[in-house]
C-alpha cells in the first residue's frame, strides 16, 4: 500500500527521533576510553571521577558537617576519601578541592588534635583513627598546603595518632598487637584485626622515613614481627588474614582476606625497605607482593578484584572501597622500591582501563561500578567505588610524579613529637560537663527543698485518717519522729547509692589503666601510689638510612567483612578443632534503625554501631584451605575439626602514660620498653576458597546458628 505524501514526513520523523535517542543514549552511556600511558587522558578522566566523588560529599555545604559523609557512611570513610583528594591534588596539580580537604581534615581532629573527636566514641576503632592518620601523613609527604600557624600541622597530627596507638599496644593478650576497638564497651574490643596493625605499621614506617627517627622504625619492626608470630601473615603463602579474638590468645584465626590488609603491609614494608635498605625488608616486601596476586582476577589474572565478596556480590559499602587503598599503596610502593614497578605497574594499568570501562552508571551515565572484571556496570553507585576508580586511574602516572618527600628532601610540615599525650591510654571518653555555676547550686538547693517538702506532704497525706474526728496535728502527735526518720533514711539511702555508683564508675575506669602498659624486660618502671609508669623515657639515637635508588624522593572488623549473607557486618568467624563453626560474639556494624534482615545488605549507621547475628553454616567450606574442615590453630596447623569457643570479653588496664615520639634527639620509648602495650585467585577455584558456602544449620534451640564476621 502506498503512503500519502503527508504521512511520510511524520513516519520519517518518528523513526529518526527514535534513532537519535538511541544514539544519544549510547553516547551518554559510553565508557571512558583511558590511555594509561597518556597523562592528558589520565588527568581528564580523573577530573570527572573526582567531581562525581565530591558530589557525594556535603560536609562543606551550608548545614553540613565538615569531615562527615552522609549516612550510611562511617566517620573513617571521610578520612579515606580525603586521602584520595590529596592524591588527586598531588598527581594532577588541580587545587579545586584543596580548601574542602583542609577543612575536613582540621574539623575532625578532636579536642586534643589526635583524631579522637568526642562525637565518634561510639564508632571509632584503631583502624578508623589510623585512616585519618594516614591521610595527614600523605599531606605532610606531598607538602599539601599547610594549615594556618595557629592550627595543628599535618606531621604533628600524624605523630599524635601514632603516639596514642603506640600506648595501646597490648602485650597482655596475644603477646602484643592493637585491639580493633579503642573503647572497651564497643563490640570488637576483644578482637585484634590486621587492618589496625597495618595502619599503625605503615604510619610508623612512613614517620621513620620522613623524620629520620629510628624509634618509629622499631615500632614498625615490632608490629610486623608480631603479625608473623601470631600467623596473621601466613608464613608460606604470605596472605594477610583478618585477625583473631583475644579469648583464644589469637590462636583461632579468621582466615578471610581483604585487599586493604595486604596493601597496608606492602606500603609499610616498602617504606621500611627504603629507610633501611636491608635485605630483610626487601624479602618481606617481595613475599607480600607474591601474596597480593590473589587479588587479581580475569582471564589474565591482571584485573584487581575484591575476591572475598565480589564473586558472590556481597561487598558492603566499606568493602567497595578497599581496592582504592590497594591501588594507592601499590603505586607508592613503586617509588620507595623502584624495582617493584615491573611487577606492579602492568597490574595497575590493566586494572585502571577495566575500572574506567564500567563507569557508565548513575543518572549521569558515568558513575563507576564495582566489578571491573565484567566490562559493564552492575549494581549501585557508592563513594567507595568512585574512590577505587579514581585511585587506580591516578596510579597510572605515578612514575612521572615526584616521590613522597622527607624532611631531608623538602618536606616542610612541622611536627610535635609529644602530640596526643592528653589521650594516651584513654579507653573511656572524656566527660565534657559545663562548669557548675552559683546559679546551678542555688537551683539545686531549691529543687532539693521542694522535693523534701513534697515528700513530707505526701507522707502526711498517706497517713491522714479522714474519718477521724481528730485534727491533723493530734493525729500525728508522736508520729513526727517517724516521718523524720523516714525522710532521713531515704536521704541516706540516696547518698549511699550515689557513693556506690561513683565508686563503681571509678573502679571500672581504673580496671583498664593498670595492666596494659607495664614494663617488661630490663626496662624499669616507676610507681606513684597505684599508678604505674608506662616506660622510662630514654634517648634514642637517630638511625635513618636513605635509599640511593632513583625516584625515592618525592603518598574504611567499622571495616567490615560482611559474610556471607549480610555485607554490612563486621563480625568474625573462628573455627574450632571439631569441625564446627561456632557462634561468635563479634558482629558487624549495621544500621539497626533501617530494620533490614541479616540476609539483606544493610548500611552502616554512624550513630549506632550495633551488631546483629550473621548466618554462616556449620561445616561449610572455609576459604583458603584445601580441606573444607581445616582451620588454623595457634601453631599454623590445620586440624581436621574444630570446636566452638565463646569469645571472651577482656578488661584491660592502662595508666595514662604519655608516649612521645618524634624528631631528632627526641626521647621515645622503644617497643621493648613495656606493654605500651580477603583474595581468591583469578580462577573460580580460588574464588571458592575466598568465601564460605551457604548451608543452613541449627543451634541448640533449633534456630539457625549465627555468627558475625570480622572487619
TrEMBL record:
Query: Which ranges are annotated Polar residues under compositional bias?
Result: 515-530, 641-653, 664-675
Q: Which residues cross the membrane?
A: 442-463, 483-502
- InterPro entries hit by this protein: 6-hairpin_glycosidase_sf (IPR008928), Glyco_hydro_76 (IPR005198), Mannan-1_6-alpha_mannosidase (IPR014480)
Q: Where is the composition biased (Basic and acidic residues)?
A: 688-702
Q: Where is the composition biased (Gly residues)?
A: 412-422
| Catalysed reaction, written as an equation | Random hydrolysis of (1->6)-alpha-D-mannosidic linkages in unbranched (1->6)-mannans
Q: What is this protein's record name? A: mannan endo-1,6-alpha-mannosidase
Give the source species. Fusarium falciforme
Amino acid at each position: 500500500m502506498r503512503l500519502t505524501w503527508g504521512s511520510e514526513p511524520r513516519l520519517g520523523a518518528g523513526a529518526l527521533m527514535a534513532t537519535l535517542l538511541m544514539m544519544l543514549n549510547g553516547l551518554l552511556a559510553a565508557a571512558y576510553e583511558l590511555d594509561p600511558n597518556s597523562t592528558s587522558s589520565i588527568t581528564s578522566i580523573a577530573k570527572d571521577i573526582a567531581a562525581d566523588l565530591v558530589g557525594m560529599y556535603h560536609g562543606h555545604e551550608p548545614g553540613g558537617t565538615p569531615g562527615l559523609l552522609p549516612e550510611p557512611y562511617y566517620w573513617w570513610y571521610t578520612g579515606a576519601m580525603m586521602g584520595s583528594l590529596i592524591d588527586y591534588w598531588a598527581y594532577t596539580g588541580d587545587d579545586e578541592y584543596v580548601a574542602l580537604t583542609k577543612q575536613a581534615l582540621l574539623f575532625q581532629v578532636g579536642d586534643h588534635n589526635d583524631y579522637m573527636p568526642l562525637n565518634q566514641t561510639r564508632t571509632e576503632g584503631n583502624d578508623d583513627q589510623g585512616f585519618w592518620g594516614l591521610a595527614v601523613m600523605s599531606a605532610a609527604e606531598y607538602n599539601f598546603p599547610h594549615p594556618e600557624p595557629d592550627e595543628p600541622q599535618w606531621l604533628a597530627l600524624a605523630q599524635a595518632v601514632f603516639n596514642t596507638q603506640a600506648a595501646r599496644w597490648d602485650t597482655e593478650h596475644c603477646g602484643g598487637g592493637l585491639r580493633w576497638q579503642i573503647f572497651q564497651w564497643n563490640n570488637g574490643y576483644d578482637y585484634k584485626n590486621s587492618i589496625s596493625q597495618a595502619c599503625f605499621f605503615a604510619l610508623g614506617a612512613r614517620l621513620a622515613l620522613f623524620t629520620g627517627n629510628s624509634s618509629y622504625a622499631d615500632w614498625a619492626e615490632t608490629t610486623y614481627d608480631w603479625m608473623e608470630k601470631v600467623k596473621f601473615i601466613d608464613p608460606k603463602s604470605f596472605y594477610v588474614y583478618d585477625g583473631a579474638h583475644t579469648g583464644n590468645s589469637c590462636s583461632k584465626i579468621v582466615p578471610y582476606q581483604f585487599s586493604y590488609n595486604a596493601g597496608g603491609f606492602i606500603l609499610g614494608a616498602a617504606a621500611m625497605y627504603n629507610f633501611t635498605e636491608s635485605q630483610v625488608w626487601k624479602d618481606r616486601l617481595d613475599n607480600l607482593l607474591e601474596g597480593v596476586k590473589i587479588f587479581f582476577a580475569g582471564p589474565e589474572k591482571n584485573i584487581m578484584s575484591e575476591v572475598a565478596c565480589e564473586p558472590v556480590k556481597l561487598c558492603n559499602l566499606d568493602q567497595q572501597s578497599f581496592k582504592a587503598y590497594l591501588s594507592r599503596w601499590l603505586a607508592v610502593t613503586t617509588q620507595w622500591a623502584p624495582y617493584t614497578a615491573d611487577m606492579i605497574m602492568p597490574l595497575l594499568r590493566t586494572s585502571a582501563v577495566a575500572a574506567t570501562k564500567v563507569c557508565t552508571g548513575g543518572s549521569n551515565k558515568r558513575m563507576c561500578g564495582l566489578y571491573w572484571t565484567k566490562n559493564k556496570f552492575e549494581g549501585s553507585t557508592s563513594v567507595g567505588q568512585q574512590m577505587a576508580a579514581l585511585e587506580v586511574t591516578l596510579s597510572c602516572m605515578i612514575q612521572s610524579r615526584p616521590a613522597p618527600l622527607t624532611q631531608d628532601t623538602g618536606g616542610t610540615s612541622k611536627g610535635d613529637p609529644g602530640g596526643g599525650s592528653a589521650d594516651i591510654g584513654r579507653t573511656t571518653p572524656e566527660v565534657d560537663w559545663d562548669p557548675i555555676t552559683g546559679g546551678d547550686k542555688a537551683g539545686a538547693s531549691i529543687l532539693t527543698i521542694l522535693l523534701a517538702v513534697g515528700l513530707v506532704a505526701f507522707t502526711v497525706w498517706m497517713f491522714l485518717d479522714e474519718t477521724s474526728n481528730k485534727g491533723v496535728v493530734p493525729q500525728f502527735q508522736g508520729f513526727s519522729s517517724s516521718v523524720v526518720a523516714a525522710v532521713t533514711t531515704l536521704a541516706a539511702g540516696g547518698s549511699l547509692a550515689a557513693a556506690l555508683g561513683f565508686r563503681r564508675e571509678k573502679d571500672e575506669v581504673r580496671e583498664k589503666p593498670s595492666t596494659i602498659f607495664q614494663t617488661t624486660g630490663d626496662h624499669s618502671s616507676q610507681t606513684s601510689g597505684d599508678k604505674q609508669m608506662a616506660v622510662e623515657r630514654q634517648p634514642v639515637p637517630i638511625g635513618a638510612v636513605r635509599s640511593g635508588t632513583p625516584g625515592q624522593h618525592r603518598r574504611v572488623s567499622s571495616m567490615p567483612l560482611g559474610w556471607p549473607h549480610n555485607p554490612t557486618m563486621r563480625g568474625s568467624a573462628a573455627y574450632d578443632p571439631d569441625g564446627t563453626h561456632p557462634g561468635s560474639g563479634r558482629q558487624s556494624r549495621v544500621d539497626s534503625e533501617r530494620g533490614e534482615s541479616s540476609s539483606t545488605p544493610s548500611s552502616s549507621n554512624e550513630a549506632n554501631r550495633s551488631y546483629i547475628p550473621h548466618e554462616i553454616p556449620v561445616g561449610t567450606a572455609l576459604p583458603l584451605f584445601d580441606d573444607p574442615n581445616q582451620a588454623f590453630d595457634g601453631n599454623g596447623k590445620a586440624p581436621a575439626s574444630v570446636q566452638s569457643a565463646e569469645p571472651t570479653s577482656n578488661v584491660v588496664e592502662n595508666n595514662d602514660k604519655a608516649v612521645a615520639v618524634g624528631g631528632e634527639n627526641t626521647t621515645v620509648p622503644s617497643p621493648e620498653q613495656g606493654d605500651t602495650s580477603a583474595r581468591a585467585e583469578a580462577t573460580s577455584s580460588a574464588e571458592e576458597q575466598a568465601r564460605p558456602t551457604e548451608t543452613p544449620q541449627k543451634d541448640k534451640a533449633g534456630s539457625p546458628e549465627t555468627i558475625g564476621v570480622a572487619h
